[in-house]
Amino acid sequence: MSGIEIDIETRYVERESNPEEDRYVFAYTITIRNQGREPGQLLNRHWWITDGQGEVQEVEGPGVVGQQPHIPPGQAFRYTSAAVLATPVGAMHGSYEFKREDGSLFDVPIPAFSLCIPSMIH
Fold first, then answer.
1. 121 has a pLDDT exceeding 60
2. Counting Cβ atoms within 10 Å, is residue 98 exposed (0-12), middle (13-18) or buried (19+)?
3. Would you kindly state where each structural domain of the chain is located, as residue ranges?
4. Strand, coil or helix: 56
5. Model's pTM, two decimal places?
């Protein structure tokens, strides 16, 4: 057990979206909490972003928002990023790769979450 917990908040960014051109922008804020007993450093991210037509974008690379944060026990790191979809609904899920102090690596799954414009919610 890694002790890393992931919380996600999403919102539709209407001012940057253009539905006439199939452009829907969603911001997501992720809080990564270290509830474990040892520090960890986030090295890499891996995302699968699926739009409402089933088209999947795979995104991977170092860190998040240009950082590879070191998160001590009892601390959290929070960041906001965005995804652009061609449909008004979609979903994301993925994983973060972390490094322990001893150099060993472990993955933390990012649970699936929905991206949806407010008028689509019933």
1. no
2. buried
3. 4-120
4. strand
5. 0.92
